[in-house]
User: Fold these one by one.
Assistant:
Number 1:
Amino acid sequence: TRSERNSCQVCACVLSTSGTKFPFLLRMFCLTLCTGYQYVNLDNCWQEPTRAANGSIVPSRERFPNWEHMIYKIHDMGLLFGLYTDFGLTTCGEKAPGSWEHEEQDAKSYAFWNVDYVKDDDCKAPPGVLSPPGYKKMSEALRATGREIVFSVKQSQPIESARSVCNLRRVTHDIKDTFYDMMREVEVNHDDGLAKYAGPGFWNDMDMIEIGNGNMTFTEEKTHMAFWCLLKSPLILGNDLSNMSQQTVDLLSSDNAIAINQNSLGIQGTRLTAFDSGLTVAIAILTNCSEAAAAHHEWHVDRGVLLRNMATGNCLSSMGPAPGDFPSPLQPVVLPCNETDAYQQWEYANSTNQFISKATGLCLDIAKATIPKYQLRMVKCEKNKAQQKFSPVGDHGNIQSMFKDYTDHPLCLSVDITDDLQIWSVALSAPPGHGGWAVVFFNRAIYASRNITLDLADLGVDSATVTVYDVWSGRMMGNHTGTLTQLVPAHGVAFLELTT
């Protein structure tokens, strides 16, 4: 199956059966079982910090005093139970013992407890040990128990051999609740050509769904759900299930979207086409100075106040042309140069190494780390804040951050340029003699709605008429031949199902 519920991101290490929150969550799981979510998964911190004298892994006595009864009750509700480990010496953050050299012992414990799902992390490998051997050991140990247990691993397991080891493999680093971080999961999935490996028994895991956590607009959250369903990612919820709006509940329990994710044909969707609208507004980002074309990092000072990017010929702006249309109106962008636009006028403060917008008085700042691309934002100036310190424009046009990430690589001001109008599709099972597809029309531009047109011949439909349904509402949108055009909001999608 590809549907789980996992509230580790919000509950973290404070989830407890001794309070009222966990039973309440279980009631919510039960009420929503009809939508297809099946697993109740615990992430890190369910264990005691040390093993028992005989080497056994021990559930936290404080957090889960009725461990086996809890699992029994979860199964009694018709749900399945999953937990977390690390193939190394400890779990991430050194919270608990890892499974290193205890694989068989831990697997037997999991089977004895009737565990249905194991997530295996890769944080604390012993020196000189790569993760694939660690994953293989646990995989073999789980299979030897004779219990059917879904096995999930991180992206350090090579994709070429992943199917023989696990049931799902993470696409890339941990997701965060931002639009660009969410899109990184989608783009890595596409750029690395992962679709060909997916199918019944093995899936590309794009990490937890961030819907309901508050940092994305509802338009962006619908994009999130559409891509996770079209690309057949496991649906693992990473929000606080005890505090969901009705809008969040409705989106996460969309029967039509989940049906596409769970379609019996089991094919992962792919990008059908992508093109530049000619109206693209590039996002200003910070990235490894060696990772992009040199021109993307090259800036030139015009008229003493404008910062022109040499890859686009456009200028850095602290605010876009239509702030009301922006998902993040204080996110710097790159626009056609206009020396009279105060938002494009910058002052560099030599004493504090800050770029200050003349329009707002706010400073260029690094937002949440979203490796390998860091988002930028405009916030109140703080003279001692490392995330606001940049070099002046250098001899080669580089603007380098004085902030260092954990890789210690130099980070340069750059631009994120991609074709902003995209069409993604996946074939669906259909009655004999008929075709079926799910299609996502995606507008990656940061402002303004765009018309996106699908040539039905690209789906292999030459002269046939297709009937179009809106996935969210289930409403039939009529019959079409030849082409199909949708008006799509910025950062948004039109999510359709087509049948012949």
Note: Residues 298 and 397 are 4 Å apart (CA to CA).
Number 2:
Amino acid sequence: MNSEEEFYDAVTGFDSDNSSGEFSEAIHKGDVDIHQTSRTGRHNGDGQVQENGIKKHRTALPAPMFTRSDFSIWSILKKCIGLELSKITMPIAFNEPLSFLQRITEYMEHTYLINKACSHSNPLERMQAVAAFAVSAVASQWERTGKPFNPLLGETYELVREDLGFRFISEQVSHHPPISAFYSEGLNQDFVFHGSIYPKLKFWGKSVEAEPRGMITLELVKHNEAYTWTNPTCCVHNVIIGKLWIEQYGTVEIVNHSTGDKCILNFKPCGLFGKELHRIEGYIQDKNKKKLSVIYGKWTECLWCIDPSTYESAKKNEKRGGGDQKKPKPSEDAENDEADDMPEVQETVQIIHGSKLLWRISSRPPNSSQMYNFTSFAVTLNELEKGMEEILAPTDCRLRPDIRHMENGEIDLASKEKERLEEKQRAARKERAKDELEWRTRWFYHGTNPYTGTPDWLYSGGYFDRNFFDCPDIY
């Protein structure tokens, strides 16, 4: 098998959408009612909200995670030091039972931060909320050492959450290189969120590094604002021996293309003795480069903001050994924080007096370690109840048999199905090459991001009209 025929299963990426900043025609069309149709979500007579046919979301996976102790990753990776890993076939033992399309959907767990940004009249407060959303979006990777399944070409994933106020659609638009496109919009027509990331993975002997590629865009419709940024680099350590652990590092620059304001966030590398592990430090500046706010915290715990002069004064006092680092009663301005149980590591962030809380991580389920360290939100993503097959596109991740078997703890069946799907994809690619046919994406098209001018995948619209007659047979 040559390299072009080889199916690979590694972290992919995602792309973008509506270049005009307007909502998809599915919202504009009068014959599509997102609040009443049973195809997207509905209200039952008892008043409880139902999303994608599910009234109450599950809190656990069907089967616990299996042990990986019997598998040797070194036998696979020892020939790959310094190489790009996207074309290296990995055994299913190192996966988690989610497709990467579902993994990127975890961005939407903290949609309330987008809603908060929309509600602010002050552009500085909007940028602070957007920065918190950008950090919260990578927080789900904490302790997630399993690799999501690489999406099959043409695979899709949708999620409608009336309780959180959004709907989401993604599609695997390219196989070489692996690219996933996604698009999400607020049900109140208040925001559009889209982006593209296709991480380049490399193995360095003891660690695997995922370098992000592509741009993420958030549009706040009411304020006529667009924000763009890229994710930090993610690194998984001790892939050969020892306890796996994750760090993220690099500079994330969030740009408000309407005002010229920028937020520069430095995700710090671990450093000597691990002092800087998970730490974030940055600031917001206006178009004249005047610092307006300092942001600090940890991407695994919480994010705070404070006036720049107060921050600098506190740091000077800290260096003198007389800093006032006691914990005040902070102005906890982030929704849903009061009900959250604080993780033990939460106490490791020294809060400067006068700081305002922007975001705090939610506690994970008590049995999370037996569920691939999933968050409560992640646990629900592959949920499939009776009747949903009639609603979903036939290419939806929930219908993918290898992931379903793995979720159910049927590892041997999952491995066999994975091999079958790989072979089916290879055969389809050979058939297209024989007939000199190009792959045609269904819900996205290749274009240009209107704010950055960079290549992007834009949403074609129409998915929620649910005309799935011409979807490919990939399973």
Note: Confidence is low (pLDDT under 50) at residues 1-47, 323-346.
Number 3:
Amino acid sequence: KKMEAEHVCATAGCGKPASLRCPTCVKFDLPAYYFCGQECFKSSWATHKTVHMIAQATSSQPLSVSNNRAKPNHHALGESEVDERFAGYLYTGSLRPYRKSPRREVPEHIARPEYAETGVPAEENRLRGGTSIQPHSAEDIRKLREVCHMAREVLDIAGHAVRPGITTDEIDEVVHNECIKRNAYPSPLNYRNFPKSCCTSVNESVCHGIPDMRPLEDGDIVNIDVTLYYNGFHGDINETFFVGTPKPNAVRLVKATHEALEKAIDNCVKPGRMYRDIGNTISRHVNQAGFSVIRSYCGHGIGRLFHTSPNIPHYSKNKAVGVMRPGHVFTIEPMINEGDYHDCTWPDDWTSVTRDGKLSAQFEHTMVVTESGVEVLTARTAGSVPFPWDKTQQPQQQQQQPQQQSQQQSQQQQQKSGGGK
């Protein structure tokens, strides 16, 4: 005998067995409505969302979802004002879109990339799909070194601003203003119509998160992706930061992601190496740690163009084309997931999130292949935000510094004494 379904699809006239429940109803502890699939859920949205609107009407403030609980928040998008592109969308995790501020202005005197006004990177589009990798001249590399140093400075300033309660929109303002101070253009702004000056990807967001009014919460992780355009060249960098007290699972993920980037640079980047080798090294390290590598996005060439050849996948057994030569400039930027490697994109056409709603982390450097190896143009400095796993080493470093200074002074005295003979 065929078993009767426990729930029936709430869509009028459907009647199929249903197990998919509206996530907003679950989060807000509203009456149970079940649907047989995404199509029925979307087709019923126009009527079903009134359930949420009625629930909001009984509350004095708009509701937002935080830590799986409904709580008041003035900046959250209420159901009655939600972007229509998100109508009926089933979120994979707890992250939700929040209100966004207007696009920030760039002073007229600052030089702009070709897409700044139109949103269209025409030269990139023209070269798209090509596999030719052009080496940069010594003068090009000097300019790249300069803009990459600026990008590192801006990222470090933004990273030090991360704390519980700050919004990613405020972080975007910090990044924007620091770019302007340096007479640089924030490369993401209006690139293919991206509306902000940096990308901020929180928790399950893989990449390309749009800064908004959501306050960061204790225990969150946030990736800040910064690119500057200055003197005709782009410099690209990103890091994942901890908000408040780090959670152990987040520390393991972020640490493994950073280690994977470092191993890829140390073991793979030198003249004569294949670009496809990078993904093998990254995958081997993160898979051993129990994590997975995103396959939808890759590292890329960079210079006068924001994105160009080569394309550099971060997963193993990829088919990346090309051999590294001195003067090649590119990024490595692995996106590593706590769960499986699948991702999906929000209806805003930018925000990528993990399909299982688990955490994702990322780190990125811009580098140039040299005659003997590699120069990381966006290398960390003494002003960079320290990693929590480095704190145990700091007391040892502090103890070693006086000894090193004493040895240096002794050597200097010996050199002076020897020079007087």
Note: Residues 1-5, 58-74, 392-421 have pLDDT under 50 and may be disordered.
Number 4:
Amino acid sequence: MKGMAGELEQDGVAVNTLWPRTTIATAAVNNLLGGSDMMRTSRTAEIMADAAFEILRRDARKVSGQFFVDETVLRACGVTEFAKYNVTKGMSQDELTPDFFC
């Protein structure tokens, strides 16, 4: 990622990564990783979409070669309520399954 960011910098193209803080309710989580139990303790893909949108709104010449985490991006934009992203309504942040790579 850093190499591509450097390569494309002069063209004004940003290259970044975005990771979730928790598992995201996807077919992979359901079918390969944890089944319905893990799905219930995951967030929806909407959080990734919202975080990606916030990153894409930034100046590509100033924001490139960075590793972002969805929740951190949204907190920096003033978001304080994350329960809307939970698959299981009413579940606390502590009950969510952390992502494996963050």
Note: The mean pLDDT is 93.
